[in-house]
Amino acid sequence: MLKLIAIVGTNAEFSFNRFLCQYIAKRYGDKFNIEVCEINDLPLFSKDDYPNEAVQNFRKKLRLADGVVIATPEYDHAIPAALKSAMEWTGKHSLGSGNDVMRLKPTMVVGTSYGVQGASRAQEDMREILLSSDEGALVLPANEILIGYAAKNFDKQSHDLINKTVIKQLDVAMDNFYQFINQWNK
């Protein structure tokens, strides 16, 4: 079974993107072994610092995964600072071994937000970072999941995604990602 890491792209205590990662882990557990990964214990990136144990564990999880799903909210038309800092620990400009764990790693970007655009600008921002020479990830193209109006699309008790149209889109996107990883691993 393919191993995925689903990164919650925020350090906020309450996050619909966390709910999205948890929903993905639950719904697609028949195709993937999915670990939801938080970034709130990672220190702020500094180019002059060696990675601490939390960063080393984060890098190891990514290195051992067959693929990565990143769920990002949108703050001021970009990804949150905590997610940017977390990804800087995975780039080749970071100190210590294992600093290029995203290089050629199959990666999918998703996101949800309170507004209509479903974190579209943040997702584009995340894709640009992943495609940079410092990261070099294999980002699945044309596979966007833009979930707007997050508060209306998730159940308030279970935190599951409830919009049937969005669920069908996510089903297609996750199937595409499954095929993408399998093609890459051949």
SSE blueprint and pairings:
Elements: E1 2-8, H1 16-27, E2 32-37, H2 53-64, E3 67-71, H3 81-88, E4 106-112, H4 120-131, E5 138-139, E6 146-147, H5 150-153, H6 164-185
Walk me through this protein's architecture.
The model has no long low-confidence stretch (mean pLDDT 94). The chain is 38% helix and 16% strand. The protein is α/β, with parallel strands linked by helices. The protein contains six helices and six strands. The longest helix is centred in the last third of the chain and has 22 residues, at 164-185. Strands 1, 2, 3, 4, 5 and 6 form a six-stranded parallel β-sheet that branches. The two termini are 14 Å apart. It has helices at residues 16-27, 53-64, 81-88, 120-131, 150-153, 164-185; strands spanning 2-8, 32-37, 67-71, 106-112, 138-139, 146-147. Strand 3, helix 3 and strand 4 (106-112) form a beta-alpha-beta unit.
